[in-house]
Design a protein that fits this description.
The chain is an alpha+beta fold and 820 residues long. Helices cover 60% and strands 8% of the residues. One of its GO terms (cellular component) is membrane.
Length: 820
């Protein structure tokens, strides 16, 4: 939810959501805009839509919203143009702000028209420049065709003339006569020159050949550098071509083929002097266009720079105005057409601030009529609002991801702040890995201000948002790692020497055989002598499994106790006596008793088999326990607890539906009673959330009974399955520990044993990559998800309904931090 700082608000209380009130505001039209603006700055009222039956176009301020939308479109256009030019909008400064929306609308229109004109002129000039650049290439390359062909023809003519002078033949006069007689019938070949994309050149040549049945001559030359295409504006590799043909039909076919292949055609003169003259003219025009384009780009850059200096101010102003008019459209017009009526939810502590904002708006507008603020009485469920800070926000979001708390029910987020990172650490217990996680998170916290203003990737954004959760997770991981005595799976004698010493010189470090207790018990955590011994896995498995059960039963008991506080707060005695009491009896008769046996066994050092005790508690409760007896009177206690567990099931199932039916019949005549005051009505609305009958609702006894039956079966079976589910703490802890051992022994120690520096470096690199990738990333995510499941399912289902809805106040703070 929102963050509140300073002395304006009461102290933060996360246990229950803020008391809310439904308020009505009657605001004169002349001060409505400014009043909504001040309320948006305050951000403590959630308006209700009183015009839900009207379409957006039928509302009072539809024209103003359309104007704001048009201005927002122009600002988006400016932002796109600035991003293309590589410019960034500057952080807004308090000076030179345009406060009048009409002036801003005119200014944005002028700037858009000017920028559109500059872009259009620039595109035309750039297209002309690209066309002339291509034309110059055609003149140069095609000129080479004709000059080489002309020189070749002249050489052949000279050779022919020399041969003609030396040799005489009877055919010579005939040929001369033929040349003289056929000169009028000679056919001149036409030609077309241009550029074609290189990737299409082969297909272009084949199509030309097929379409003209081979009656063309095509010459192509590769252009070394990519050419900017005048049409698309992209750089394309092209070939200069010249097609020689005969006849008008062939020309038409060639023109169509050129058009189909996107070949740009350019005129060309056979005269060499004209070619050189054209090249000179084209080069001159290119230099002129280049100068003009550069000047246009400088002018465009200066204009965008000017826009960028005030872009953020204009953008925020337009978005604020749009939000204000959206809110004003949710207000209804009174019958006199002189006032707007608003309804909305606000925290009770915000009453004075809202009244001050309305009074300030009236004073600033010089209005003669003061706005009216009054509270409404309702049975409607209010929204849920927790005032959080940057530390508690992430924990609250973990809870809200499951479901938003019902109005003023107990908030699991208070306990999640401690229990979530602790259960994570139970699965992730290694103080070496915890330190790595802590150092990575401290980077986020140290650079918090800088990173909060930057756009991060999706994964980095999530990690940064949960930085304080990860800090606590790492601190608890260091704590549990010290208890497990594991630093990257290596044990250390941190607090004292090991309590075990060798009995004689033959004692091996790899086995506890021969070890005797020669010193005081190791003061904190697991004795380092256990690590590497043959008894390590049985000992740690027993320890972690029993510890998981103890933690699970404790957290489930906490959930049931919170259900009692909910019933007490909402004055629901039925839930207290017929839900809380039997649930506590059932859970603790079985698994509370198991937890007691675990503690007694640890304290006494007994060899009793707890599996046998729990199984035969159900199968043969009257049999003697024999060697599995832990204390006197255990058999009698077990029979009493089993009887209580059996009694608690019908206790949960039967009385509540009948009592709810009696309660409904007793209150049926009170449907039209006068409404109580606000707080009582809200409490009543929250109290009747069970859905078993309000004033006019039909009471279906069969539906209520089936619902209670499902709830009872779910709790009874869930008590067993939820307790077993906490064994994931043991399983994940074991997996993490064993993976650490594998990476340490099979990678690092193995590489060290080769006595080769290169193998050692490779081994260290592999160890670091495996530790970071598997243990610090994948295992962290895995333990996080399992801790999340334990909170959502095993803990919260004991008391948390989570069927409320969030308090979303009208606030400009959200506009300032979110993209439109």
């Amino acid at each position: 939810m929102g963050e509140r700082e300073g002395g304006c608000c009461p102290s933060m209380d996360l246990m229950r959501s803020e008391p809310m009130q439904l308020v009505q505001l009657i605001i004169p039209i002349e001060s409505a805009h400014l009043a909504v603006s001040y309320l948006g700055d305050l951000g403590l009222i959630q308006f209700k839509d009183l015009n839900a039956e009207k379409s957006p176009f039928q509302r009072t301020y539809a024209i103003q919203i359309k104007r704001s939308g048009e201005m927002a479109r122009k600002l988006r256009f400016f932002r796109d143009q600035m991003s293309k030019a590589g410019l960034v909008a500057q952080v807004r400064s308090p000076g030179q702000a345009i406060a009048n929306l009409d002036d801003l609308e005119v200014k944005l229109g002028d700037l858009e028209a000017e920028l559109v004109e500059i872009n259009a002129n620039g595109e035309k000039l750039q297209r002309s420049y690209n066309e002339l650049a291509e034309y110059k290439l055609v003149l140069q390359k095609a000129g080479e065709f004709f000059s080489s062909a002309l020189s070749s023809a002249e050489a052949r003519q000279r050779e022919y003339s020399s041969n003609q002078g030396r040799e005489e033949s009877l055919e010579i006069p005939l040929l001369s006569e033929q040349e003289t007689t056929d000169s009028s019938k000679q056919v001149r070949l036409g030609f077309i020159t241009g550029l074609v994309p290189r990737e299409k050149s082969m297909a272009f040549e084949r199509i030309l050949f097929r379409a003209t049945r081979g009656n063309v001559y095509l010459k192509q030359v590769v252009v070394d550098e990519p050419v900017v295409d005048p049409v698309s504006g992209d750089k394309v590799e092209k070939n200069v071509f010249a097609v020689f043909f005969s006849g008008e039909r062939a020309k038409n076919k060639i023109l169509k083929i050129c058009e189909a292949f996107g070949a740009n055609r350019y005129s060309f003169s056979e005269d060499g002097s004209k070619q050189s003259q054209l090249i000179t003219e084209v080069s001159g025009r290119l230099s002129e266009l280049k100068t003009t384009i550069d000047a246009g780009l400088v002018h465009r850059g200066n204009l965008l720079q000017t826009i960028g200096e005030q872009f953020e101010q204009w953008n925020l102003l337009v978005r604020k105005e749009k939000a204000i008019y959206h809110t004003l459209n949710m207000l209804s017009m009174d019958v006199t057409k002189k006032c707007l009526v608003a309804e909305g939810w606000s925290p009770i502590f915000a009453t004075k601030q809202i009244q001050d904002a309305l009074h300030r708006a009236t004073h600033d507008c010089n209005s003669q009529v003061e706005a009216i603020f009054q509270m409404l009485h309702t049975r409607e469920m209010p929204p849920t609002y927790f005032r959080t800070n940057k530390f508690t926000t992430a924990f609250q979001e973990i809870v809200d991801a499951y479901g938003v708390a019902k109005y003023q029910e107990a908030n699991p987020g208070v306990f999640t702040i401690v229990t979530f990172p602790f259960l994570f650490a139970v699965m992730f217990g290694d103080w070496g890995h915890g330190i790595c996680l802590l150092l990575a998170t401290l980077f986020f916290i140290v650079r918090e201000k800088k990173l909060s203003s930057q756009k991060l990737g999706d994964i980095m954004e999530m990690a940064f948002g949960g930085r304080y959760v990860i800090v606590l997770m790492s601190l608890f991981s260091i704590y549990t790692g010290l208890i497990y005595n594991e630093f990257f799976s290596v044990p250390f004698e941190l607090f004292a020497p090991s309590a075990y010493v060798c009995r004689d010189a033959t004692c091996s470090e790899a086995s506890t055989i021969g070890l005797i207790k020669g010193r005081d018990t190791y003061p904190f955590g697991v004795d380092p002598a256990w690590h590497g011994s043959r008894s390590e896995l049985p000992f740690l498995n027993s320890l972690k499994m029993k510890m998981s059960i103890l933690l699970g039963v404790a957290q489930m008991n906490l959930g049931i106790i919170l259900s009692y506080f909910n019933a007490l707060f909402f004055k629901n005695s039925i839930n207290t006596w017929f839900q809380f009491v039997p649930q506590m009896i059932f859970l603790n008769s079985l698994f509370g008793y198991l937890s007691l046996l675990i503690i007694v066994k640890w304290c006494t050092g007994s060899q009793a088999d707890l599996y046998h005790v729990m199984i035969y508690m159900f199968l043969s409760p009257t049999d003697d326990l024999g060697e599995n007896q832990l204390f006197a009177g255990q058999k009698t206690l077990q029979m009493v607890l089993l009887l209580l567990a059996l009694v608690s099931v019908p206790w949960m199932l039967l009385p509540k539906p009948f009592l709810l039916k009696m309660q409904h019949e007793r209150h049926q005549g009170e449907a039209y009673a006068p409404l109580p005051d606000t707080e009582e009505s809200l409490q009543s609305g929250a109290n009747h959330n069970d859905g078993h009958g309000h004033g006019h609702e039909e009471f279906e006894f069969s539906e209520v009974f089936v619902h209670q039956l499902i709830h009872t079966i779910e709790f009874v079976l869930g008590a067993v399955s939820n307790t077993a589910s906490y064994l994931r703490l043991w399983a994940l802890s074991l997996a993490h520990s064993e993976l650490s051992v594998v990476f340490y022994e099979k990678v690092l120690l193995l590489a060290w044993g080769y006595n080769n520096i290169f193998i050692l470096i490779i081994g260290i690199i592999i160890f670091i990559c495996a530790t970071v990738g598997v243990l610090l990333v994948m295992e962290t995510l895995s333990a996080f998800l399992h801790a999340l499941r334990l909170h959502w399912v095993e803990f919260q289902n004991k008391f948390y309904e989570g069927d409320g809805y969030k308090f979303y106040p009208f606030s400009f703070f959200v506009l300032d931090t979110e993209e439109e």
